[in-house]
Design brief:
Rossmann fold, Tumour Suppressor Smad4, about 20% strand, six-stranded antiparallel beta sheet
C-alpha cells in the first residue's frame, strides 16, 4: 500500500495534531494499518480484564476501610462511585477515539453519575436500601449509553435498544444470582466473578443488538466492518474506517447509507466502483469493490460472518458461567426454604409474657427476617455429670432436700423434666449411668446408689463422661442440658498421671466443646473459677458458669440451675445459612432491648449494604 502525503497547500486543511502524527508515524502506520482492527480487538479484552482487576481492588478496599463514622462512609462511598463508574464506562468504550479522549469522556460522565448516586445514597435512611441500590445499578449500566449519546452523538435506535436490553438483562441477571445465592452470600469470590461478568455481558448485548441492525459489510485490509444506517470512511478516528493516507478536501472521503435493505454510496471525492467512476450518490450492488487511490473496499449485503462472532462471544460467556459454578462447587441452588436447616434457640426469658413482647434476633450479626415460632412446650433432658472422687460425693446428699422443688418447678403442662445421672472418676471404666429419672423419689433413689471413687491424681476425667451420655435416642424437640459438677481440672489426651500413666482419655476440651455445639446442647458448669480448662464451655456466656468453691450447700446451686432452666423458651425458624447456626452466634433481644438493637442494626445496614458491596452481594 502506498501512502500519499499532503502537499504544503493542502496541509493547512489538516489540524496540527494529525499533521504532526503524519510526519512522525507514517512508517508505523504503513506497518500497523493492516492489523489495526486486530490490535483494537486485542486492546478491548485487556481493558475488560484490567477493569475486572480494578473492580476487585475497589471491592477489597471497601471492605477494609473503616465505616464506623457516617461521614467517612459517605466519603468513601463517593470515591468508590467515581472509581467503579469510570472503570465500567471506560472498559465498555469500544469506539476508535484516542485512549486519552476516552478517559476524559468516561471521567465526565462518571462525575455526573457519582453526584447523582451520592444524592441517592443520602436517601438510604428514608427509602429501602435494596430499592436505592437497584436504581444505582441501573444508572451504572446506563453509563455507556449516556456516554455515547452525549459525547459521540449517537442517537439512533440501535443505541436506545442497547440501553433497554442492557438494563433488563443485567438487572435480571443480578437478581437471579441474588436469588439462588442467598445461602452463599459469604462466598466473596463467587459474587465477585458474577459482577465481573457483567462487563462481558455488556459486550454480548451490544453484539446482539448490532447484529439485527446490520445491513451489510465492508471488507478493507482483510478485516470486515459492519454497515449500519450510516457508514463513514475518512480522516477522522471516530469514522468506521480511518484513512489518513487518502488525499481529499474533506475529512469524510465517502459514506455508505442504508435504506430498505439497499446500500448507497455518497463520495466526496472521485472514486471507482468496479472500474466505473462515481462522483455522486450511487446505489451499490452486492460484492462491488470501491477503489480510491490504492485503497480497496469490498461491499457485501447481508450480515456476513457477524453471527459467528456473536456465537463466539456467547460461547465465552457460557464457559465463564460454567467456571463460576464449578468454583461454587454446586452449592448455589434455588432458594427452597424447606431445604435449609431449622434453628432451635433456647434462651432464658425473665419477663411476664413473651408472646406480647417485641423480639429481635441476630444471627452471625445479621438480623433474622424469617418467621419464627416461640414456645415453652418442649421436654427437658438434663444430664448431671457428677465427679464422684474427693469431697463432692458427700455434698451431693444435699440434692435430696431440693429434688422435689426442682421437679415441681420445671414439670408443668408444657414441660417435662427427665434427669440422667452420669458419674465419673479417672478412668473411662469408672463411668456409671442412671437414666430416665422422672420424679424426685427416683432421683433420690439413684443418688443413693452413687459410689465414691478413689482418684489416682488431682485431675479427673469428665470428657469421656460427656461423650458417654446417651443423646441419640432423645426427642429432637427436647432441650438437652448438661450440668457438670466437679472440683478438679480435666484429664486430656496425652495427660500424665502421678504414676506415669498416659492417656486417661483420647479426648480434649476442644473435642467436647465442638461436640456440645454440634448437638445444640446447653452446657452448664459448676466448678471452681480458677480452673481455666473449663472456660471454653462458657466463654461466650458467663451465666453458664456456677461457682461452687467454698459453697456448703451445692444442692442450692442445683436448684438455681433448675430455676434458670425453667425460664428457657424455644425459638424456631428456618435459616438461610448453609451450615447449622451455632448457639453462641445468635443473640436474642426482648422488649425495649429488641427495639434499640433493631434500630441500631437498621442504621448499620445502610453502611453494610453500600452500593459497592451490593455489587458483590445481594441488593
Amino acid at each position: 500500500m502506498s501512502i500519499v502525503y499532503p502537499d504544503k497547500k493542502s496541509s493547512t486543511k489538516y489540524d496540527k495534531c494529525e499533521k504532526k502524527w503524519y510526519e512522525k508515524s507514517h512508517v508505523l502506520f504503513k506497518v500497523t494499518r493492516k492489523n489495526g482492527e486486530y490490535m483494537k480487538n486485542l486492546i478491548n479484552p485487556i481493558k475488560l480484564i484490567s477493569g475486572i482487576i480494578i473492580i476487585y481492588t475497589i471491592k477489597y478496599l471497601s471492605y477494609e476501610l473503616s465505616i464506623s463514622s457516617y461521614i467517612l462512609f459517605y466519603c468513601t462511598e463517593f470515591i468508590f462511585f467515581v472509581l467503579s463508574g469510570f472503570v465500567f464506562s471506560y472498559a465498555t468504550d469500544f469506539s476508535k477515539d484516542f485512549e486519552f479522549d476516552k478517559i476524559l469522556k468516561s471521567l465526565y460522565i462518571t462525575l455526573f453519575f457519582s453526584v447523582f448516586s451520592f444524592a441517592l445514597t443520602l436517601c438510604k435512611s428514608i427509602f429501602p436500601v435494596w430499592f436505592i441500590n437497584i436504581i444505582l445499578f441501573i444508572s451504572m449500566i446506563s453509563l455507556p449509553v449516556f456516554r455515547d449519546y452525549f459525547f459521540y452523538y449517537r442517537t439512533e435506535k440501535r443505541i436506545q435498544y442497547r440501553l433497554y436490553l442492557s438494563v433488563i438483562v443485567l438487572v435480571l441477571y443480578k437478581l437471579f444470582f441474588n436469588f439462588i445465592n442467598r445461602d452463599t452470600a459469604d462466598n466473596e469470590h463467587f459474587n465477585s466473578l458474577i459482577f465481573a461478568m457483567t462487563l462481558l455481558i455488556i459486550r454480548i448485548i451490544y453484539s446482539i443488538v448490532d447484529y439485527f441492525f446490520i445491513t451489510g459489510s465492508v471488507e478493507f485490509d482483510d478485516y470486515e466492518y459492519p454497515v449500519f444506517l450510516n457508514f463513514k470512511v475518512g480522516r477522522n478516528r471516530l469514522f468506521e474506517i480511518f484513512t489518513p493516507d487518502i488525499q481529499s478536501e474533506k475529512r469524510l472521503v465517502f459514506s455508505i447509507t442504508s435504506k430498505n435493505d439497499t446500500l448507497f454510496i455518497k463520495p466526496n471525492t472521485e472514486l471507482k466502483i468496479d472500474n466505473t467512476i462515481a462522483t455522486e450518490k450511487t446505489e451499490l450492488a452486492d460484492n462491488e469493490t470501491i477503489k480510491i487511490a490504492n485503497n480497496y473496499f469490498t461491499v457485501t449485503k447481508g450480515r456476513g460472518s457477524f453471527f459467528k462472532k456473536f456465537f463466539i462471544l456467547f460461547f465465552y460467556f457460557f464457559i465463564a458461567n460454567v467456571t463460576v459454578f464449578s468454583i461454587q462447587n454446586d452449592q448455589s441452588v434455588f432458594t427452597d426454604i424447606s431445604r435449609y436447616p431449622e434453628v432451635q434457640l433456647y434462651v432464658p426469658y425473665y419477663g411476664s409474657n413473651y408472646a406480647d413482647e417485641p423480639v429481635f434476633i441476630l444471627e452471625s450479626d445479621q438480623p433474622v427476617h424469617n418467621k419464627f415460632v416461640i414456645s415453652k412446650k418442649f421436654p427437658i433432658e438434663m444430664f448431671l455429670l457428677l465427679d464422684v472422687t474427693g469431697n463432692l460425693v458427700e455434698q451431693y446428699k444435699s440434692f435430696n432436700k431440693h429434688s422435689k422443688k426442682i421437679f415441681n418447678l420445671i414439670n408443668t403442662d408444657e414441660q417435662i423434666l427427665t434427669i440422667n445421672i452420669v458419674t465419673f472418676g479417672d478412668e473411662k471404666s469408672d463411668i456409671q449411668q442412671f437414666k430416665g429419672i422422672r420424679n424426685y423419689t427416683e432421683f433420690n433413689s439413684a443418688l443413693a446408689k452413687v459410689k465414691p471413687l478413689q482418684g489416682n491424681d488431682f485431675f479427673e476425667n469428665p470428657l469421656d463422661a460427656i461423650f458417654s451420655a446417651d443423646i441419640l435416642n432423645l426427642s429432637p424437640q427436647s432441650l438437652k442440658v448438661f450440668v457438670l459438677f466437679t472440683d478438679a481440672p480435666p484429664h486430656q489426651r496425652g495427660s500424665r498421671g502421678k504414676d506415669g500413666v498416659l492417656d486417661f482419655t483420647d479426648k480434649t476440651v476442644s473435642d467436647c466443646v465442638e461436640y456440645v455445639r454440634a448437638n445444640n446442647i446447653l452446657f452448664l458448669t459448676a466448678s471452681f473459677k480458677r480452673y481455666k480448662e473449663y472456660q471454653p464451655f462458657y466463654q461466650h456466656n458467663e451465666n453458664r458458669f456456677y461457682e461452687i468453691e467454698n459453697i456448703d450447700d451445692i444442692g442450692n446451686s442445683l436448684y438455681s440451675i433448675a430455676s434458670d432452666i425453667s425460664r428457657m423458651i424455644k425459638i424456631e425458624y428456618k435459616t438461610f445459612k448453609s451450615k447449622r447456626t451455632l448457639l453462641n452466634n445468635c443473640y436474642v433481644f426482648f422488649g425495649d432491648d429488641a427495639k434499640i438493637h433493631k434500630l441500631d442494626t437498621a442504621k448499620n445496614k445502610i453502611k453494610e449494604r453500600s452500593f459497592i458491596r451490593s455489587l458483590f452481594d445481594v441488593f
